[in-house]
Give the backbone structure.
Amino acid sequence: MAQTELSVPGRGRGLLDVLSQRYLLKLLVRKELRVRYRGSVLGMAWSYVKPATQFIVFYFAMGVFLKVGSDIDYFAVYLFSGIVVINFFSEAFGNATRTLIWNAQLIKKIYLPRELFPVSAIYVSVVHFLPQLVVLLIGALVVGWRPTLLGVLAALLGFLLTAILGLGLGMLFGSVNVYFRDAENFVDLLLLVATWASPVLYSFAMVKDAFKNHEWLITVYELNPITVAVQLFHYAFWVPVGGPRAMEQMPDSMAQTTAIGFVVALVVLALGQTVFRRLEGRFAQEL
């Protein structure tokens, strides 16, 4: 009789299992969206209301009252292209961290690849990201934006970079959060910092001026993957309308920082998957 290879119960191939369970992933995404908007009057319209409110508050606070926008041509496009990235990252990272807790009853009842839950959280975030992207496109078109091949590539890279980083961090902190609920509170603090640690509300030129005597701080700032993603969206949507003056305020080595940003994000994803697989064996018991 031929012997079959033994495997540890409840262990799969990690994120590779998600590719073979696309139907289950679709069901989870639909469930998350139904639960999210159950009893809501506005429903998906909240995808427009929240970023619109953020934009208005930040525009007047930073652009009008504090005069930050006086040195940034087409400040509205600059601001909203950064807000779109930060909102996508915040929802992806935050929801991926909490999704195992939210689906505790399902995890305790049946076995399915646990990675489906953080991945489904990323998909839901994409659903909410798309309406904001449409608004950004319309606003940019109104002020004269026209797509370029490099600009479209930059936007796609910024989107992928944000999704990869959000998934990696979500899996890392989400698996820890099953054991220690403090993890999600720490994530909230990180997301609070993320908005200010990237050039969303201010220009990169201000960062270079502030750290002109500490070049290494500028380098560390540039290597933050979210900073890279925001800069890619600025290159895609703001630079075409801002012209040469806008290009002067961009980093000199976009290709290099983009490559390093992806390396950092992929390392985070690998770390998140490793920790997730080490801890998932007791998810059902801990939940």
